[in-house]
Structures are given as structure tokens and as C-alpha cells.
Amino acid sequence: MNSTISTVLRYLLGVAMLIFGANKFAGFMPKPELSEKAGIFMGALIDSGYIWPILGVFYIIIGLLLVLNKAVPLALLMLVPISINIVAFHLALDPKGVFFAAIIAILNAVLLFTHWSKYQTILK
Fold first, then answer.
1. Domain range for residue 43?
2. What's the total number of domains in the chain?
3. Is the pTM of this model over 0.90?
């Protein structure tokens, strides 16, 4: 893949992670309307008192690593279970939000592919 395209995709994903991570603490984005089940699940995550902030911290760490071009392969691996869960949440509980969830997962997958050679030693 062209390095310019890869860089743009990395910045897009990194900025998205920074925005969504900061939002978990500051709540500056409007809350989307969710189905009843999705609302109950999301409320439980928030009410737990620890899952929501941990997610926010991970989003911010991943976003910073991607934007600063530091440990990018690690950041992309850290994002895999998060992006899978974002897509699964929307498929199961809030299908109308799956488009944006899929964008995050696709960006993650494309960037993982561009760094595939870096993962060869751990895949042996």
C-alpha cells in the first residue's frame, strides 16, 4: 500500500480513537439513541465505574501511538479486540450504528495488513 495512504489512514484512526477516548471522560459528543437492550448494556458499562474509564484510557493510548507514529503495530493489535467488540455490539444490539463501527474495524484491518511483516515473529 502507498505509504501516504497508510499514513492518512493511520491519522484518521488515531484521531478517531483520541476523540472517542476523550469523550468517555468529557462527554462532549451527544449520546446516540440506542435500543433498549443496547442502552441497558451501555448503562451497565458506565455504571460499573471502571470499564468506561479503562476503555477511554485505552482509546487515548492507541490514538496517541497512532498519531505520533510510535509502536504502531502494538497499537493496532491493542485495537483488535476493541474493534471486534464495537462491531459485535452494533450487530447484536444497535444495528443502525454498525456503519461507523465497521469503518473503525476496516481501518484497523487495513493497517494491520500494511504492518503484517512486523507480526511474523510472533506468529511462528
1. 3-123
2. 1
3. yes
